[in-house]
Amino acid sequence: MLEADLEEPEEADAIGTIDRFALQYRLPLPLQRLAVAHPDTVDVVFRKILRRREFSWAEDGEALMRRRKAWYYQHEPRRGVSVIGDRLLELASGGRR
């Protein structure tokens, strides 16, 4: 649904969807992923959200995230998923599978 809304950045609904999504999760990662997934429309959408005609995600996106989500960048982010081998899985589960 969210990605479908981004296909038409001129529609106010797409901007509202991004706003709700970012506010709900409060993390920069979803916004960064959307920017990578939609490089042709990310500037248009953020220009409308921020009301800044000159905004460019490539030039200003990182600074925006660091300014608005400073708490996130105060420490190194932890991975959400770790891939481990069979042997480590066996050891971690105490030999049970």
Question: Can I get a quick summary?
Answer:
The protein has helices spanning 2-6, 12-25, 28-37, 42-50, 57-68, 70-73, 86-92. It is mainly alpha-helical and 97 residues long.
* SSE pattern, N- to C-terminal: HHHHHHH
Indicate the percent of residues in helices: 55-70%
Task: Tell me the strand percentage band.
Answer: under 5%
Rg (CA only) = 18 Å
The backbone outline, from C-alpha atoms, is: elongated
Q: How many structurally independent domains?
A: 1
> Quick one: how many beta strands?
0
Number of discrete helical segments: 7
Describe the largest sheet.
none
Structural class comes to: mainly alpha
Overall description:
The protein has seven helices and no strands. The protein is mainly alpha-helical and 97 residues long. It has one domain (2-76). The N and C termini lie far apart (37 Å). The relative contact order is 0.11.
Secondary structure elements and pairings:
Blueprint: H1 2-6, H2 12-25, H3 28-37, H4 42-50, H5 57-68, H6 70-73, H7 86-92
